[in-house]
Write a structure and sequence with these properties.
The protein is α/β, with parallel strands linked by helices and about 625 residues long. The protein is about 45% helix and about 10% strand. It has 24 helices and 19 strands. The chain binds adenosine-5'-triphosphate.
């Protein structure tokens, strides 16, 4: 009897022997005296992972392949005549040369056309380190097995495979189940016998348990005793059946005095089943969590979100309730609040929530239009009404017919215009300048101011009768200082909107920075907050905005909006009082906005059309 390793040539190529080589240069299946692990698998990824985990050798088996294809190991018995081609197809490309341990080819002898000697020669030529008899007749049910044996395609062919492997200088490993089979394979010169208890139990696709670990160990121990008597250096391994965990393997190996364990379903199917499904479930949970966070955030963003009004504070909730209540009335609403609190947004919300929502909303900034032009802007004019009126023109009131007119900064209207506005509001009729033709209009008027109109009327700067006419309904927009709990939400919204415009993920704000934001005075209210946050997003190098990024911005007297030549001033730039200075006023604004007409019109609170008319009027190219 020959001992493993003697008189064998080294296989051509193949995996290097992590377990070392015999003095003759033949790879070993692990190191003597050390518990060995083989991995019976069917895919490159599993092979490499098993080796990383310490597997001493790889068995490339068709059962491993069908498992990673989603079938139970038993399916490997079905397309049996193609088994060797099937194994070669994946094992040569995915495993050989990619792992540094011996790779044994799971060779089938079932096909009557297979010449066992030639098959072994082919396996050696491909570069495998050895062979194992797989699939084996020992895994067939007795009836099928008897049929195979009757035709001479059974156990004897597998023994011949092991003998041929030995002759070819390959490592030989043999699956056995009984003492007789163990003796046969030891006598054939196998380097390793592995008692295969049948398809592994456990897991989703596992077989039902028919044997316990104690029974399996006793069975294996008997096989090993005989095999070792015949071939003292033979390695004795166990596999399958009730061994579904490392603990199970330890129990069977200890009790049977096995040298090692061959892991098959236990190293791919069972861990993959749980790892993949647990991981997918974890991702699913994250998605669910994200949806929950979004839902929570939506809830937190508040009911006003549909109007673009962010905030979950009680003050904001009250504001939104007021908007909903007052939206459908045709009464005039006076929107009060400090500069930058969102009065214009409230006006837009009142319009959008009203029955006029599909009609025009026309906004006029009374402070941004020169006084002598405001009248014609509001009420329109007929051709020849004044020098330069070469055509008649609709006023903003008429443009808003059927819809809403929003008069922003109404507190800046001069007294003569206040009188005219009052008359129009009372009568519902507009006459263009230079005409006495009345136009009856259906316009809902909203107005806003940061000034105290009551005090102004007490001092005679604002007509009291107009004040009462405008303030039929009143909404006060809270300052940011009154709702500091909305600051984090607003800041996050501004960062998201900024990221959506400029690309990339939104930056985040750390806790210290939030504290800094929440302790600031915010004289410019939400507008100032938006500008500070956007500047921090632009200027900071990191993805996280910290307190240090905010200090220079919060200490600066005014934070200009990035991307715009200038933030909308808290108090609009004073309008010129005479036609001589208006030209300069427009030229100056054009310069400030780098001659971009749209930006200039916005800056001055004029419509594009009005700005163009004025430019033409003053001969500004
Ligand atoms: N609750 C809010 N949610 C989201 N953005 C807001 C909110 N309030 C204000 N803003 C934003 O702040 C900026 C200033 O708002 P807005 O122009 O409506 O203020 P305002 O009170 O009309 O100011 P001013 O008195 O100076 O005309 C705008 O960019 C607006 O979109």
């Amino acid at each position: 009897m020959t001992s493993p390793g003697d008189q064998h040539r080294a296989p051509a190529g193949g995996g290097g022997p992590a377990g070392g080589r015999t003095p003759q240069g033949r790879p070993r299946l692990g190191t003597a005296g050390r518990f060995g692990i083989g991995a019976a698998i069917g895919a490159g990824l599993v092979a490499r992972s098993a080796v990383r985990g310490g597997a001493d050798f790889i068995l490339a088996l068709n059962a491993g392949r069908v498992r990673v294809m989603g079938a139970p190991s038993a399916v490997c018995m079905l397309p049996i005549h193609e088994s060797n081609a099937f194994v070669a197809a994946f094992a040569r490309t995915e495993i050989l040369g990619r792992v540094d341990v011996p790779v044994l080819f799971g060779a089938s002898t079932f096909d009557p056309r297979t010449d066992v000697e030639a098959l072994v020669g082919q396996i050696a030529a491909w570069g495998f380190s050895g062979v194992i008899n797989f699939p084996s007749v020992i895994l067939l049910d007795p009836e099928a097995r008897a049929g195979m044996e009757r035709l001479g395609l059974g156990w004897r062919r597998e023994v011949a495979l092991i003998e041929a492997a030995r002759r070819a200088g390959l490592l030989a490993a043999a699956y056995v189940r009984t003492v007789e089979q163990g003796a046969d394979m030891a006598a054939a010169g196998s380097d390793l016998v592995c008692v295969n208890f049948g398809w592994t139990t456990g897991g989703v696709a596992g077989e039902p348990a028919t044997q316990d670990t104690a029974g399996a160990a006793a069975e294996a121990a008997a096989v090993f005793r005989t095999a070792r008597r015949l071939r003292p250096k033979i390695l004795c391994f166990v596999e399958g059946g009730p061994i579904a965990t490392p603990q199970g393997a330890a129990e069977v190996c200890r009790a049977s005095r096995a040298d090692g364990y061959i892991a098959s379903s236990t190293v791919d199917r069972i861990p993959l089943e749980t790892a993949v499904s647990d991981t997918a479930a974890a991702f699913k949970a994250v998605a669910g969590l994200t949806r929950k966070v979004e839902a929570l955030e939506n809830e937190l963003l508040g009911d006003g979100r549909r109007f673009g009004l962010i905030g979950c504070s009680a003050a904001m909730a009250h504001l939104v309730r007021m908007i909903e209540r007052l939206a459908d009335s045709d009464l005039t609403v006076l929107i009060r609040g400090e500069s930058g609190t969102g009065k214009e947004l409230v006006a837009q919300a009142l319009h959008r929530a009203s029955r006029r929502c599909d009609r025009p909303l026309v906004a006029v900034n009374c402070a941004a239009i020169p006084r002598d032009l405001l009248e014609s802007e509001l009420f329109g004019y007929e051709r020849g009404a004044f020098t330069g009126a070469s055509r008649s023109r609709l006023g903003r009131f008429e443009e808003a017919n059927g819809g809403t007119l929003f008069l922003d900064e109404i507190g800046d209207l001069d007294l003569p215009l206040q009188g005219k506005l009052l008359r129009i509001l009372e009568s519902g009729v507009v006459e263009r300048l230079g005409s006495n033709q009345p136009h009856r209009l259906d316009v809902r008027v909203l107005c806003a101011t940061h000034r105290d109109l009551r005090a102004a009327s007490a001092e005679g700067r604002f007509r009291e009768d107009l004040f009462f006419r405008l303030a039929q309904l009143e909404i006060r927009v809270p300052s940011l200082a009154e709702r500091i709990e909305d600051i984090p939400l607003l800041a996050r919204q501004f960062l998201s909107a900024f990221a959506a415009r400029h690309g990339g993920p939104p930056k985040v704000i750390d806790n210290a920075a939030y504290q800094r934001l929440m302790s600031h005075r915010w004289a410019g209210n939400v507008r100032e907050l938006r500008n500070v946050v956007q500047q921090a997003a632009i200027l900071g190098d990191r993805e996280v905005i910290g307190a240090a990024d905010l200090i220079p911005l919060l200490d600066a007297p005014a934070a200009a909006a990035p991307g715009r030549a200038a933030a909308r001033p808290a108090t609009p730039a004073p309008a010129p009082s005479t036609a001589e200075t208006e030209r300069d006023w427009i030229v100056e604004a054009l310069r400030r906005n780098r001659f971009r007409r749209d930006a200039t019109a916005r800056d001055l609170g004029l419509s594009r059309k009005t700005l163009y008319n004025k430019m033409r009027h003053y001969g500004i190219a």
